[in-house]
């Protein structure tokens, strides 16, 4: 058969586009993506990579597998609760629903009674104030880093042109200049504001007198950062918020406190983790926290504090550049008003119940694959740069290391922990309602090692 005859037999574009699977796919994906799929299969046939009689089926399979967004839901079997690589906090059912409801047109900046413009995200602000009654006012922005940037920029801003000739200084302890991850360092971020870092004390010890000695005409604020992702042990000392408040008052300075994790109030499980209520009671003018760490909500930066300071932040031009979108506002409000979040549930998971679930699953897995399947003690972690060194006692199913990539590549992706040549499956961050699904995934990965993977991804169960 000549090249030309061969080409002529390849199904034509109009014929392929008339297939019912295309109509079905149009509800999810756009014309450009559909044409790309069709043309790629035709090219494959021309180049002999796909037999001509299989082109149509290849197009149908590719269309069915195509998803409008590429993010793949995973079961987090690592035991790390706030897992940065897996999107930090998984949202509560209420927050997921709120995002869906806010996805269309919503009254995010309109009062439906008067038809007039209203304050953006008033509901989320109200919910944050109710959850944190120690705060006089609150503001929600894009993320924790943005909140820190806005707070420092606004409180250090100079009132007059003449004063602006001297850059403001933020006084901060050397023990608190943190790299928060992936090479991002808070000191680098802080100096982009134009204010200067005035470092005081040493890595392990900083005293109130260090702060006081650094105060001068250029001082814009006192800044305290919770070094959330590491711990200095031994000969250490720091200055608490209450003591910094007294110093700030003596010199008429604002006090900014970045807590990172965002516990609303103390948690007995995390004795070293500071909370918003405590920092406000101790006298911070503004306290900063992330929405998607221990608070268990969407990515957001929370700013709570004195009415006058928060008003100043809200009016600063930078506030517009870091404002949060309607989906975030909806999810934060639902998180704050809702029941226990998945993050809190995973944090406070009962070790005895975890053991029961893990042993039950291991027994059924062993029966299914007709081989031994061991359960070992395994410590979970808060993760996300929070509560370093706090172990959370639990259990894991121990498998050979080679299972980890197979589990990640399954029809439902399972991310387990790889540690010292073993693959550890920890149930802490998996909702009980997904235990059956996890068992299926484990059986699939362990059982039919030679079989082809299923092509169409299935959805995760409700959580
Ligand atoms: C995590 C963290 C940040 C950054 O917050 P994002 O929400 O990740 O932008 C800032 N400061 C501290 C102390 C943190 O722990």
From TrEMBL:
NADP is among the record's keywords: no
One Gene Ontology molecular-function label: L-seryl-tRNA(Sec) selenium transferase activity
Involved pathway(s): Aminoacyl-tRNA biosynthesis; selenocysteinyl-tRNA(Sec) biosynthesis; selenocysteinyl-tRNA(Sec) from L-seryl-tRNA(Sec) (bacterial route): step 1/1
Keywords: Cytoplasm, Protein biosynthesis, Pyridoxal phosphate, Selenium, Transferase
Enzyme Commission numbers on file: 2.9.1.1
InterPro entries linked: PyrdxlP-dep_Trfase (IPR015424), PyrdxlP-dep_Trfase_major (IPR015421), SelA-like (IPR018319), SelA_trans (IPR004534), SelA_trans_N_dom (IPR025862)
Superkingdom of origin: Bacteria
HAMAP family: SelA
NCBIfam families documented for this protein: selA (TIGR00474)
Membership in a protein family: Belongs to the SelA family.
Protein name, entry field: L-seryl-tRNA(Sec) selenium transferase
Species this protein is from: Leucobacter muris
